[in-house]
Amino acid sequence: MLITFEGIDGCGKSTQINLLKQYLEDKGKHVQVYREPGGAYIAEEIRSLLLDSKNDISAISELLLFSAARAQLVQEKIIPDLENGSVVILDRFYDSTIAYQGYGRSVLPLKEIVTLNKVASHGLIPDLTFYLRLPLNLASQRRSERARDRMEMAGNEFYTRVFEGYELMVKEHPRFIVLDGAHPIESIALEIQQYL
Ligand code: ADP
Ligand code: TYD
Fold it and tell me: Which of 1, 41, 99, 118 pairs with 77 at a CA distance of 20 to 30 A?
């Protein structure tokens, strides 16, 4: 089973993923958690390039680097884990590429990004995708404690496009389960558990 979490930076994905992992492990499941970009050696190296605010990366190059990191993670870790019967939980997957590179950067027509996403993910489709909806001002308050990475330097207009992109995606694809990220941590966790 493949479960993905999506939403703007600071919406609470990591918090909920940790709680879900614990919940599933308590039920005797074997759980693997990975973050994107990252989760495998090559993918973590690519992550450092992508998030280092000193790097000047072209929009197409950024798209291909996120995709390259994903291709490595899928082949090296996710496919074998799924074959072994593990539950795989991902902190972001290709929906992030549609939201950030597609809607945020407008780097290519969405159709072409969808094709690239299929290639990079070997055609995997998540069984469940939780979208944590959080207004941009609340998300940026939550992020204020930590140093800004290269993506987070992109500014408010960029984040507005990303947020609106997610909102369009959740309307279009019934796979998304929309959760109110402003609710208390425990109540979001209980809602997530109802889908498992
Ligand atoms: P993400 O992984 O989406 O960037 P995190 O899980 O790291 O988000 O959460 C960002 C910050 O917001 C953390 O300090 C976390 O403790 C806090 N946080 C997460 N969920 C909630 C919530 N439902 N209500 C209030 N604060 C939260
Ligand atoms: P990360 O710190 O892992 O996410 P978060 O801030 O939500 O905890 O940072 C990953 C950044 O990369 C985040 O800004 C979203 C962005 N991203 C893309 O632009 N495209 C992608 O395909 C992926 C997977 C992430």
Answer: 99
- CA–CA separation, 57 and 169 (whole Å): 26
35 lines ligand 2 (CB under 6 A): yes
- Which residue of 142, 146, 187 sits with most ligand 1 atoms within 8 Å of its CB, as the best mutation to test the pocket? 142
Centre of ligand 2 from the C-alpha of residue 28, in Å: 30
What is the Cβ-side half-sphere exposure of residue 3, based on CA atoms within 13 angstroms? 21
Q: Indicate the pTM of the whole model.
A: 0.97
Q: Is 54 exposed, middle or buried (0-12, 13-18, 19+ CB in 10 A)?
A: exposed
What size, in residues, is the chain? 196
- Ligand 1: residue whose CA is nearest its atom 20: 12
Distance 29 CA to ligand 1 centre (A): 25
Domain boundaries along the sequence of the chain: 2-193
pLDDT digits (tens, 9 = 90+) for 162-184: 999 999 999 999 999 999 999 99
φ and ψ at 133, to 5 degrees?
-85, 125
